[in-house]
Amino acid sequence: MAAPRGMGPLETEVMEYLWMVDSGTPAQVREALGADLAYTTVMTILTRLWRKGLLDRQRSGRAYEYRPVESQAQHRARGMRSTLDQAPDREAVLSRFVDELSPGDARLLRRLLERGPG
To answer: Which of 9, 22, 64, 99 has the highest Cβ tally under 10 A?
Structure first.
C-alpha cells in the first residue's frame, strides 16, 4: 500500500473514531464527533480518507459504511517506517529514537527485539 498523504485535524479525528468503533456511516460519525459539522462536511472527509486508501466503504442502505483498511497500530507503524525510509542516516535516526525512549518503552523494545520478527 502506498503511503497516503498526511491527515488534517478533522481527518485524524474521524480516523480515531473509526479505529475505536471499527466502522460507521456518515450519520454515525457526525453524531459521534459532537461538533457542529454539516453532514456534507463529514461526507467530504470520509470520501477523502477513502480516496487516500485509509478507508474501505460498502453500501449500507442509502449511505456507505466506512471501515479502516488497517488497524491504528498498523497505520502508526507504517508511518514510522516511512519516516525511517526517508532518512539519509538511518542509524542516526534510530539512535536518536532509542535515546528518547522512556525506560519502560526501552524495556518493551528490548523484549520485542529479543522475540524477533513476526
So the answer is: 64
Pairing of strands 63-68, 55-60: antiparallel
Instruction: Report how far apart, in Å, the C-alpha atoms of 2 and of each of 13, 52, 54, 72 are.
Output: 22, 9, 10, 16
Per-residue pLDDT of 48-68, as tens digits, reads: 999 999 999 999 889 899 999
Position 5 scores a pLDDT of 60
- pTM of the entire predicted model: 0.80
What is the CATH architecture assignment of 9-68?
A: Orthogonal Bundle (1.10)
